[in-house]
Design brief:
By secondary structure, the protein is α+β, with helices and mostly antiparallel strands. It is built from seven helices and 18 strands. Strands 10, 11, 12, 13, 14 and 15 form a six-stranded mixed β-sheet that branches. It starts with a strand and ends with a strand. This is Ubiquitin thioesterase OTU.
Length: about 280
Amino acid sequence: MGKSLTAERWVPAPDSVGLNRFILQQRIIVVGSFAGSSIFPFAFLVDSFLLVQVLTVVINPRIFYFQRCTPLSNMEGVVVRRVIPSDNSCLFNAVGYVMDHDKNKATALREVIAATVSSDPVKYSEAFLGKPNEEYCSWILNSEKWGGAIELSILADYYAREIAAYDIQTSRCDLYGQDRNFSERVMLIYDGLHYDALAMSPSEGAPEDFDETIFTIRGNRTIGPVEGLALSFVKEQQRLRKYTDTANFTLRCGICQRGVKGEKEAVEHAQATGHVNFQEYR
């Protein structure tokens, strides 16, 4: 029976391996002699994330094969936008996805933020938060309330990773935790009203299981080629107008049907009437 080297130790390898159509997540190098004959030495390389069809590979007892993981961020791939539900907690669930591959982290992360803020009322003062510390903690625990820069800054510290938030309309990247000398970074994308997650994927249609969302920060404080791919993706989203211009968008009140323009008029209408249900129209 052959042996395979994985995680620096030898383990038995099967005499035959049946592989159906799938996306490989590892680079597999097989070296040996085919069918027990030393006359036909062979070696083949199946590169990471190539879609392959292998019916049966017969491995001679004298064949050894070696597997090693190859990070996608060092290879070819595409940046993809992973859509997060629009339920007023998109920021928290987007962070949950890029950090933990979990789109249902909002409740837990709201609690993290409330605990952090309440533990340091000097740092998180009314001047900083825009409301008293205790009031803010109750407010952020409400699942109807949105998050923003304050919450992203706290979550960057909590996970000890930089959070890059790309704004589609301006293609600006707001980087949270950049002064903390963290060694890793994750990426979000913002359309003016909503946050989604950004990931590296082997292809446009690849399953989310193959997403890479955490990237090593290099000595020059970038994440290498992935950073350029992310910016190109954001600019393409901008070209396609995949954003909401909150200063000039037109909204219709879902209760009284009155039309308003921009966030300012929407806020004024809500304060005057108590109506908070708006739909965008063009």
